């Protein structure tokens, strides 16, 4: 066992089942995420990637199976439940309010209140503190943005994704989940977002990355979780397997039990 | 190292946008100043403190309604029921106090409650059944309109107790009479400005209007936001009813029939976007004053009243066109 494999899973799922009518989206899916790793989640359309992620982030409740966070069983009923336990999700393109500024977006839904009467009775927002802390989070990830009071709609696609990642990283104490964070971006901006993902890992938070982009997955992932027909068929590493191996596993052209 | 740089073109675009955002109140303010200058050059009677106080007095009622309308429009909604709800409020207050001899303060409290209840109803229908606000408030507009005429028996209610007409009373500021209704309208604008810009609830109103899905995913309780917005708007229509009673001295079942469109005009001319999430109550105060200044100025110049509608129509189209163009540039 290598050093990476030695640690206890931060986030784990055992035998997750989710059915939508006659369709079985998850058919006994297992999952494990280890400390300080980037785990890529790949699979063909309909393999159950999104359903698995939704179960892990609290957006849906599975019909069967267990989710464990640091070994403790969890029952997430809403995304807010998962977030309270330190699991943050970066959604593809829906996550920001374009007319609001960067600081407001970072703290959206979790605004800081003024201390004392103004905060308790009038629910006054503590704007100076939010600006300061948003600035710290943005700087931590080495994102370069002109001004925190700039509306998000004035930013480029990559910068917007940077704000979304900064928000997730700011509040994620345990896990960051990213759903196709580079899908809408150009090559250069995608590279910048990949750097951000590495930066999040450097800060000690493991990342689950859903992506269709094989070269990206092989560039950045520590391990690759491959799904097919609602189950995990293998967990490989970029060192142990090639891209064509991964595609073969995804499509069912080859099948083997992962030794990982 | 993650380095997300801005290209030169993006920088250009962003400064245009920053300017466009500042414009959303600067434009209307400029229009207000220019129209005031124009009317002062045309008639000596325009720029007198008495006339300026009169303008505020004339627009106080529609201004208070427009404050509620602003909150609703910021959530990307619209409230067509406002004028009818206000009219129903005036009838409840005056009829209870005059015909039923109820204590005037109890009558006022009941009138405010009824208007607020209409707001709650609007909010519940918009969030619960997910009906478009336009249709919901078109329905409640007709309900409130019918109830107004049923309860009032089509009669104007006069001989009101003094405490009902308090907001029509005036006080002197160095020889100029100012009504308490004008002061109340400006105070309400100030309170709403504070709530919208300084409180967490206010930021949630903008977020809900700007991107409801993102707001919900971020943990904003968007349904609760919408219900409280429509409810607050209902309460404001009730307060407008009280100010209207003070101004006219009667309970008039015919009141408020054009106030829904007038308030939307004031909000839109003030630079608030009909698509939600952009604008604010400062713009609405300016927009309300612009409409008031045009009506008053044209009247002083002796222009036939029908031209006031013509000018208002042109103003609305200009304002909506500016909104639409700046929206297109963003996308």
Model description:
- The complex is a heterodimer of chains A (260) and B (331).
- By secondary structure, chain A is α/β, with parallel strands linked by helices.
- Chain A contains ten helices and ten strands.
- In chain A, the strands form two sheets. In chain A, strands 6-7-8-3-9-10 form a six-stranded mixed beta sheet, with helices on both faces. A four-stranded antiparallel beta sheet of chain A has the order 2-1-4-5, with helices on one face.
- In chain A, helix 8 (187-202) links the parallel strand 7 (175-179) and strand 8 (207-210).
- Residues 1-6 of chain A have low confidence and may be disordered.
- Chain B has 331 residues and is mostly helical.
Roughly what percent helix of chain B?
Answer: over 70%
Q: Roughly how much helix do the residues of chain A carry, as a percent range?
A: 25-40%
General shape of chain A: globular
The separation of the N and C termini of chain A measures 9 Å
What does the overall shape of chain B look like?
globular
Strand % of chain B is under 5%
The description of the largest β-sheet of chain B is:
2 strands, antiparallel
Give the count of helical stretches of chain B.
12
Q: Specify Rg of chain A, calculated over alpha carbons.
A: 19 Å
Strand order of the largest sheet of chain B: 1-2
Q: Please state the structural category of chain A.
A: alpha/beta
Question: Number of DSSP helices of chain A?
Answer: 10
Show unreliable segments of chain B: 1-14
Question: What secondary-structure arrangement, pairings included, does this model have?
Answer:
The complex is a heterodimer of chains A (260) and B (331).
Chain A: H1 3-6, E1 11-20, E2 23-33, E3 38-43, H2 49-56, E4 64-69, E5 72-74, H3 79-84, E6 87-90, H4 102-106, H5 117-120, H6 127-140, H7 157-171, E7 175-179, H8 187-202, E8 207-210, H9 214-220, E9 223-228, E10 231-236, H10 243-251
Helix pairs in contact in A: 7-8
Chain B: H1 8-42, H2 49-74, H3 82-98, H4 104-128, H5 133-152, E1 170-173, E2 176-179, H6 180-198, H7 200-210, H8 212-217, H9 222-248, H10 259-269, H11 281-300, H12 306-330
């Amino acid at each position: 066992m290598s050093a990476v494999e030695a640690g206890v899973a931060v986030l784990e799922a055992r035998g997750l089942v989710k059915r939508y009518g006659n369709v079985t989206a998850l058919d006994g899916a297992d999952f494990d995420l280890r400390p300080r790793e980037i785990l890529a989640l790949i699979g063909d359309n309909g393999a159950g990637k999104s359903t698995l992620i939704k179960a892990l982030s609290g957006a849906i409740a599975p019909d069967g199976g267990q989710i464990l966070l640091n070994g403790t069983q969890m029952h997430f009923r809403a995304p807010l439940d998962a977030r309270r336990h330190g699991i943050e999700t970066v959604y593809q393109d829906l996550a920001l309010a374009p007319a609001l500024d960067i600081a407001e977006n970072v703290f959206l839904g979790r605004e800081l209140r003024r201390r004392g009467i103004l905060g308790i009775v009038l629910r006054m927002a503590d704007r100076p503190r939010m600006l300061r802390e948003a600035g710290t989070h943005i700087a931590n990830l080495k994102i370069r943005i002109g001004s925190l009071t700039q509306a998000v709609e004035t930013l480029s696609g990559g910068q917007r994704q940077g704000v979304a990642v900064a928000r997730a990283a700011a509040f994620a104490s345990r896990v960051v989940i990213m759903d196709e964070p580079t899908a809408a971006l150009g090559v250069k901006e995608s590279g910048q977002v990949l750097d951000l993902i590495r930066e999040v890992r450097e800060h000690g938070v493991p990342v689950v990355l859903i992506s269709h982009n094989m070269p990206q997955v092989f560039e950045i992932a520590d391990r690759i979780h491959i799904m097919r027909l609602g189950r995990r068929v293998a967990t490989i590493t970029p060192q142990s397997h090639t891209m064509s191996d991964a595609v073969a596993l995804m499509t069912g052209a080859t099948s083997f039990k992962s030794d990982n | 190292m993650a380095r997300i740089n801005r290209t030169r073109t993006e920088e250009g675009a962003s400064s245009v946008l920053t300017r466009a955002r500042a414009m959303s109140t600067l434009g209307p303010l400029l229009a207000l100043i220019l129209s005031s200058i124009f009317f002062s050059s045309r008639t000596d009677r325009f720029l007198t403190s008495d006339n300026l106080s009169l303008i505020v007095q004339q627009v106080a009622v529609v201004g208070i309604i427009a404050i509620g309308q602003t909150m609703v429009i910021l959530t990307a909604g619209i409230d067509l029921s406002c004028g009818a709800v206000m009219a129903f409020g005036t009838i409840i207050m005056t009829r209870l106090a005059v015909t039923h001899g109820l204590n005037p303060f109890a009558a006022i409290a009941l009138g405010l409650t009824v208007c607020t209840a209409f707001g709650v109803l609007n909010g519940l229908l918009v969030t619960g059944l997910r009906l478009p606000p336009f249709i919901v408030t078109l329905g409640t507009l007709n309900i409130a309109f019918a109830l107004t005429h049923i309860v009032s028996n089509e009669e104007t209610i006069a001989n009101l107790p003094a405490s009902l007409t308090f907001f029509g009373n005036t006080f002197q500021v160095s020889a100029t009479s100012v009504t308490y209704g004008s002061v109340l309208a400006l105070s309400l604008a100030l309170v709403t400005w504070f709530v919208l810009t300084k409180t967490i609830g206010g930021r949630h109103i903008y977020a809900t209007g700007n991107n409801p899905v993102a707001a919900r995913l971020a943990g904003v309780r968007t349904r609760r936001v919408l219900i409280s917005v429509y409810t607050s708007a209902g309460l404001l229509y009730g307060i407008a009813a009280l100010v209207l009673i003070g101004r006219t001295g009667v309970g008039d079942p015919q009141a408020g029939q054009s106030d829904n469109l007038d308030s939307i005009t004031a909000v839109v001319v003030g630079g608030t976007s009909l698509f939600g999430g952009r604008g604010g109550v400062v713009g609405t105060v300016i927009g309300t004053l612009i409409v008031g200044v045009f009506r008053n100025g044209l009247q002083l110049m002796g222009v036939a009243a029908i031209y006031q509608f013509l000018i208002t129509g042109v103003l609305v189209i200009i304002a909506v066109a500016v909104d639409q163009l700046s929206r297109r540039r963003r996308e």
